[in-house]
Amino acid sequence: MLEHIQMKTFYIIDFDSTFTQVEALDELVRISLSHHPDREEIYKKIADLTNAAMEGRLSFRESLTARVQLLHANEEHLIKLVSVLKKKVSASFSRNRAFFRKHADEILIVSGGFKEFITPVVLPFHIKKENIYANTFTYDENGNITGYDQDNPLSQEGGKVILLKKLQLEGNIFGIGDGHSDLQLKESGLIQKFYAFTENISRQSILEKADHITPSFDEFLYVNKLPQAISYPKNRILCLIVGAVPEEAILALKKDGFSIRHKETFEEKYIGDVGMLLLADGEKVSDANLLEAVKLKTIGYLGISRHKLSHDIATEMGIVIFDDHKMNPRNAKFIPKRMSDFINKGDTYLSSNFPSLQLPKVGNAHRLIHIHKNLPGIMAQINQVYANHNINISSQFLMTNAQIGYAITDVSIRYDKHVLTELKEIEHTIKFRILY
């Protein structure tokens, strides 16, 4: 009987505007020319050259040569650049460090950027130095950048394809990136799937040809059934914003990665899918609509919500409400943050209808949220499920009010999937979800 051999999977990840939120050469020129009288004009030229190459309108080598000539940078500028880039790692990559540690042998950073700034940024993510493929600068005797190694295949048009042919990786290969050079890997037939990464920038010409559009690294891990830092990608949580909500409130939720829809009035077509709802002062939600919002987890209200929507129905459905009792202008940021903290951490601090709970962040654990009617014996049933499956509880929190119990349990990293089904099936359960 032939033994089944599982194919190895490799992950080819781009750097600029993928692993990091920015284009590194754009940032480098801002550092090197910060006092140059024509800096704004040069910044624009660099950005235009970058976009032309990423969208396939200019060959990569032509773009690279022109950009490097405009840099006027030296080794001291590179040190400053690395410091900037370490703070600009894409949020969804940053929160999934455990994945990089576990798959260090299979992850390759392949970039048309430069090792001088890529290596120090990605090494803290457990990526092996020998798995970093990028260009290198050339310098004069004073440490000024004069150009780049033109023999490096990654400095050429189609460089990633050339490199991958040389590497001859055996197994399934997934490519993750935002630009034309990443798309070329798919068109070459050398990789199984190309994922267009859009957390930082979205290029229509790339999206049209990608196998999958991934608005975050969480999404990539989720669709490939790989372990991720959060249980469900935030880009799949629909956040409906209704009315004259300040832009700063919208940007706060958008920056956190939620899928945003902003409408002047409440549109019923979204009610079955909405996971978060942010309402301007004066907006109302009918009881009928609230009862149909089966996926809704939290409501933010930029005003006093008591007579604009039913707190009783929301509570019975396990929907957490945050509103602004004092009509404080600063709450345009505060209310969205409370909503995000509930989705991200399970915090109900200063909720209008739920027991108020602030939770410590834990590592090497899963956080499970169980919302139930406040009746005797339910916590005993919850803990019996954990006991039956020999699950180690790291920490547990329970807050109640007259209507509901809000239980947070942090459990050891390994657990039987049947646990989730059993917890959902406990009588009088209102909502249950895995946070991470």
UniProtKB/TrEMBL annotation:
Out of the domains of life, which is the source? Bacteria
CDD domains registered for this protein in UniProt: ACT_3PGDH
Biological process GO annotation list?
A: L-serine biosynthetic process
Q: Which InterPro entries match?
A: ACT-like_dom_sf, ACT_dom, AHAS_small-like_ACT, HAD-like_SerB, HAD-like_sf, HAD_sf
Question: What sequence ranges are listed for the domain ACT?
Answer: 367-436
Q: Which cofactor does it need?
A: Mg(2+)
**Any one GO MF annotation of this record:** L-phosphoserine phosphatase activity
Gene Ontology CC annotation, any one:
cytoplasm
Q: Which UniProt keywords apply?
A: Amino-acid biosynthesis, Hydrolase, Magnesium, Metal-binding, Oxidoreductase, Serine biosynthesis
Q: Name one Pfam family in it.
A: HAD
Name the catalysed reactions: O-phospho-D-serine + H2O = D-serine + phosphate; O-phospho-L-serine + H2O = L-serine + phosphate
Could you tell me the EC number(s) of this protein?
3.1.3.3
Task: Give the pathway listed in the UniProt entry for this protein.
Answer: Amino-acid biosynthesis; L-serine biosynthesis; L-serine from 3-phospho-D-glycerate: step 3/3
Q: Which PANTHER family match?
A: PHOSPHOSERINE PHOSPHATASE (PTHR43344)
For this entry, the protein name equals phosphoserine phosphatase
Give the originating organism: Arcticibacter svalbardensis MN12-7
Q: What is the lineage of its organism?
A: Bacteria, Pseudomonadati, Bacteroidota, Sphingobacteriia, Sphingobacteriales
